[in-house]
Amino acid sequence: MPGVSLVGSGSARLSVALSNDALSQRVDTSDDWIASRTGIRQRHVAAPTDSLTSLAAEAARNALAMAQVSAGEVDLILLATSTPDDLFGSACQVQAALGATRAVAFDLTAACSGFVFALVTAAQYLRTGVYKNVVVIGADVLSRWTDWSDRTTCVLFGDGAGAVVLRAAERDRLLGFELCSDGSLNHCLNLAYQSDPAVLVGDIAVQEGTFAPITMNGREVYKFAVSRVPEVIEKALFRASLTTADISWMVLHQANQRILDAVADRLGVPLDRVVSNMARHGNTSAASIPIALDEAVRANKIQPGDVIATAGFGAGLTWGAAILEWQ
Ligand code: UT7
């Protein structure tokens, strides 16, 4: 059976940084509270001229350049996002922006787990031998859906885009994975459609609502993350016939430094093996893992042959882990 190799990574550079101090001019918060509770010092926000598509395409272009794969060679583009420019999907616009004319492209929504879910989905196409080159993008512009008057959520999120290129290979570098969902906890984290019924004609009514800003029960999601993430990583390691001692790098969804520390502690992984860029980017949802991965690769931390344990967790609720070997 053909396998999967990760051959490139990339991310988008957002020019607008929003510091904790700047945010505290808007809501009753402080750099001290945000940094001590979350590890976040600043986040980036998309400029009014940016689009989800432009950020995703920039990340994909950089990943393709590292992989030395041309846009014309791409068979599939998977865009993990919860914040498309178009509810019908933005992946096709990314395909057009890249000039990846042969590629089929579609969106995949699994919130902050989206990148891991998309990576595993992409791998199935490669393992069956259907496709040779796949671009997986995680991109979100949560600033569009943030309630900027709610200090319990607006300090957490940032915008961003990251991408990887996967290629069919003889040896499979997706060593193991485990994906999970629990819709009974859906109410803990939402960006939900709010119905506003309106009479269309006679006794027939339709809905003329819109999506309401993000709401989250932070404490519940925190408890969920620190219990489920170590468990799902252990299951994925088991499927890979590896143990925590084999992990070179943990690249987790960047939601809260305290969550990263707690997961590392439970698994007995030294903190200097845990990639963290939360201080600079905040929580960028589906983009957080590929951005963290790309930064660690470009800083020459992650080297060919390194074993990466990655895990995403968030709305749905969804969570999942993948154990990968870099290149
Ligand atoms: O990406 C999806 C996954 N999301 C996550 O993983 C998020 C998980 N949750 C968390 O990271 C944490 O729960 C938060 C960072 C969201 C909150 O931290 P916490 O330590 O759980 O704080 P808390 O919600 O228990 O609030 C503690 C206090 C409250 O005041 P009282 O009730 O003790 O008087 C809040 O009103 O802190 C207050 N507070 C703030 N104060 C200053 C909440 N937000 C702020 C703020 N600035 N921004």
Write the layout of secondary structure elements.
Layout lengths: L2 E9 L5 E3 H4 L7 H8 L3 E3 L7 H16 L8 E5 L10 H8 L5 E5 L5 H14 L5 E9 L9 H4 L4 E11 L4 E8 L7 E2 L2 E2 L2 E5 L2 E4 L2 E2 L3 E2 L1 H22 L9 E4 L4 H11 L10 H4 L6 H11 L8 E8 L3 E8 L2
Parallel strand pairs: 4-5, 4-6, 15-16
Antiparallel strand pairs: 1-7, 2-3, 6-7, 8-17, 9-14, 10-13, 11-12, 16-17
Helix pairs in contact: 3-4, 7-8
Molecular structure report:
With 327 residues, this protein is an alpha+beta fold. It has two domains: 3-171, Thiolase/Chalcone synthase (Peroxisomal Thiolase, Chain A, domain 1), CATH 3.40.47; 176-183 and 215-325, 3-Layer(aba) Sandwich (Peroxisomal Thiolase, Chain A, domain 1). The protein is built from ten helices and 17 strands. The chain has helices at 20-23, 31-38, 52-67, 91-98, 114-127, 151-154, 218-239, 257-267, 278-281, 288-298; strands at residues 3-11, 17-19, 42-44, 76-80, 104-108, 133-141, 159-169, 174-181, 189-190, 193-194, 197-201, 204-207, 210-211, 215-216, 249-252, 307-314, 318-325. The chain has a five-stranded mixed β-sheet with strand order 1-7-6-4-5, with helices on both faces. Helix 3 packs across helix 4 and helix 7 (218-239) runs parallel beside helix 8. The two termini are 18 Å apart. Bound molecules: oxa(dethia)-CoA (UT7). The site of oxa(dethia)-CoA has 19 residues, from helix 2, helix 6 and helix 7.
Summarize the model shown.
The chain is of the alpha+beta class. It has helices spanning 20-23, 31-38, 52-67, 91-98, 114-127, 151-154, 218-239, 257-267, 278-281, 288-298, and strands spanning 3-11, 17-19, 42-44, 76-80, 104-108, 133-141, 159-169, 174-181, 189-190, 193-194, 197-201, 204-207, 210-211, 215-216, 249-252, 307-314, 318-325. Oxa(dethia)-CoA (UT7) binds at residues 29, 33-34, 37-38, 112, 151-152, 155, 218-219, 221-222, 225, 255-256, 259, 283, 314.
